[in-house]
Amino acid sequence: MKTGKSQELNWNTVTKRLPKHLHTFIVKQPYKQYTAQNQAVWRYVMRL
C-alpha cells in the first residue's frame, strides 16, 4: 500500500478487509494532538 511520505500505517485485520478503493482514505491519527475541545466537537457531531 502507498501511504504518505512520513506516515507508516499498521495494517490490522480490519483495515486489510476494507475494499482497496477505500485504502487511500486511511490515515494515521494524531491522537496526542487532540484537545478536550476537539473531542467535545466530535461527540456533538456524531450525535447529529
Structure description:
With 48 residues, this protein is mainly alpha-helical. 35% of the residues lie in helices and 0% in strands. The chain has two helices and no strands. The chain has helices at residues 13-17, 36-47. The longest helix is centred in the last third of the chain and has 12 residues, at 36-47. The chain is extended, with a radius of gyration of 14 Å. The model has no long low-confidence stretch (mean pLDDT 83).
Q: Strands, helices and their partners?
A:
Layout: H1 13-17, H2 36-47
* Strand percent estimate: under 5%
Give the biggest beta sheet: none
Shape: extended
| Helical/strand content category | mainly alpha
Average pLDDT for all residues: 83
Name the helix and strand elements from N-terminus to C-terminus, one letter apiece. HH
Overall radius of gyration: 14 Å
Q: Give the oligomeric state.
A: single chain
Helix count? 2
Distance between the termini: 34 Å
Helix content percent band: 25-40%
Taking pLDDT < 50 over at least 5 consecutive residues as the criterion, the unreliable ranges are none
What is the number of strand segments?
A: 0
